[in-house]
Amino acid sequence: MAGGPRAADHAAMTDAPSRPEPPDPLSPDPGDAPTTEQPPAPRRLLRARDDRIIGGVCAGLGRHLGVDPWVVRIGFIVTVFLGGAGVVAYLAALAFVPEDDGHGAPAGPAPLTGSRASTIAGVAVLAIAALWVLDGAAFGVGWFLGPNLLGLALLAGLAYAAYRALEGRDGGTPPVARVAGAVLLALAVLALAGVGFVAAFWLAAAGGGTVAAGVVIALGVVAAVAAFVRPVRWLAPAALVVAIPVAIVAAADIDLDGGIGQRTYRPATVAELRDGGYQLGVGELVLDLRELQWPRTGLVETEVEVGVGHVLVLVPRGVCVRASGRLGVGALTVMGDESGGVDVDQELGTGGLGDAPRLVLTSRAGVGHIEVDTHPDRDRDRGWWGDHDEDDPLAPQPPDAPAPAGDCERT
Amino acid sequence: MRRPDLPALAAGLAVTALGLVLLLDRLGEWDLDFAAMAPAVLAAVGVVLVAAGLARRDEQR
Question: Nearest Cβ partner of B11 from A228, A236, A244?
Answer without folding.
Answer: A236
